[in-house]
Specification:
The relative contact order is 0.07. 57% of the residues lie in helices and 7% in strands. Helix 8 (276-289) runs antiparallel to helix 9 (292-299). It is an alpha/beta fold. Strands 3-2-1-5-4-6 form a six-stranded parallel beta sheet, with helices on both faces. It starts with a helix and ends with a helix.
Length: 364
């Protein structure tokens, strides 16, 4: 017993005096563990992205091969005159697509040229994404921010009435991270200044889900700022505090006022937090149509309407026929019945397997 106590004491002394002893050694171990975890996560992310690209390339190759086979079969059934007509029509359609693409690119360039700082009020709609929060963002959130900026760029440059999409506080490390995602080819205005410094505080309107007043209208005289924040856990009041610090106006999208029409339920007291590209899409559609219901309907994803969709409330478009709602309810009931049958069948199979296992154990 004395020998055992002496051995334990010596081991304890050795542990205390080891390399991990002293103040802060637990924090160092935690940092090392977090570094290994982040490294493993990054390796897994790269592997998943590579596998996703390979699948996409294979699917694209198969689709092209199927299109070639379909074209060959179509041409084989035609006469030489029909083949010539078909090829001529295809060239005409190709030229029309190229012309439409060039016209849209010209509209985007005009919006970017006429909507920057110092331009007059009768120009394109100004939508700004402020990235002043990006330098403190973790790498995962930084990549998500870059992805949402890329999506916003794609939405704007293909919209019939594009806005002057501007990114403010375009600084490191965001610029370097975005460069790997092709940010040099984005059709946006990049500014190192903040929105108030670039456009003037009197013209800036910050959009925040925590604001008290709703945004009732948009015009080309003001600049509508979306916070470049991608937070996995929602940090309440961050953009409101930013607006107070900059001494600029702060508004929220009028989701509460149109909640019932949007299928969010009557009496909604708070706005769902939307992605950057969703807010940009809502502003573009409202500026084009003047209809907040239509603008918010295309911007709010289904996952933000989970309480309603989980209640099996069938979504009905505004242009549906009077009997469409009843038909949708019948379809939902049929799907629910089929799902119940599937669950019952799976339960029967599981019970049979359990009984077989019990019988085998009894024989053993």
């Amino acid at each position: 017993m004395m020998l055992l106590v002496s051995v334990l004491c010596s081991q304890g002394d050795a542990g205390v005096s080891g390399a991990d002893s002293g103040p802060g050694h637990k924090g160092k171990r935690d940092e090392a563990w977090k570094a290994k975890r982040d490294e493993a996560w990054e390796a897994r992310r790269r592997f998943n992205n590579l596998r996703r690209r390979e699948k996409f390339a294979a699917k694209k190759k198969a689709k092209a091969a199927a299109a070639r086979e379909e074209e060959e079969a179509l041409l084989a059934a035609m006469t030489p005159e029909e083949v010539e007509q078909w090829r001529a029509a295809r060239e005409v359609a190709k030229a029309e697509r190229a012309a439409a693409y060039a016209e849209q690119a010209a509209r985007v360039e005009a919006a970017l040229a006429n909507g920057g700082p110092g331009s007059g009020p009768d120009v394109a709609l100004r939508v700004v994404v402020d990235c002043s929060f990006a330098p403190s963002a973790p790498p995962k959130e930084m990549r998500s921010l870059v992805k949402q900026l890329e999506n916003a760029n794609m939405i704007n440059k293909s919209f019939p009435k594009p806005a002057c999409l501007t990114v403010t506080n375009w600084l490191e490390p965001l610029a370097s991270v975005a460069a790997t995602a092709g940010a040099n080819g984005w059709r946006v205005v990049k500014l190192e200044q903040g929105p108030a410094a670039a456009f003037g505080p009197d013209r800036v309107v910050v959009l925040s889900p925590d604001a008290e007043e709703p945004l009732e209208a948009v015009d080309t005289a003001h600049v509508y700022v979306v916070g470049g924040i991608v937070d996995r856990t929602v940090r309440k009041g961050l953009t409101v505090k930013f607006a107070e610090t900059e001494r600029v106006a702060c508004r929220r999208l009028p989701i509460r006022e149109n909640a019932e029409q949007l299928g969010l339920g009557k009496g909604v007291t708070k706005n769902p937090v939307l992605n950057i590209d969703d807010v940009v899409r809502a502003l573009l559609v409202f500026h084009d149509t003047g209809d907040w219901v239509k603008a918010l309907d295309v911007a709010i994803p289904l996952r933000k309407r989970k309480p309603q969709t989980m209640g099996f409330t069938p979504p009905v478009s505004r242009g549906a026929t009077p009997g469409a709602e009843a038909e949708a309810e019948v379809e939902v009931e049929a799907e629910m019945g089929a799902a119940a049958v599937d669950v019952a069948g799976q339960q029967e199979v599981l019970q049979g397997e359990q009984q077989a296992v019990v019988a085998d154990a009894g024989r053993a």
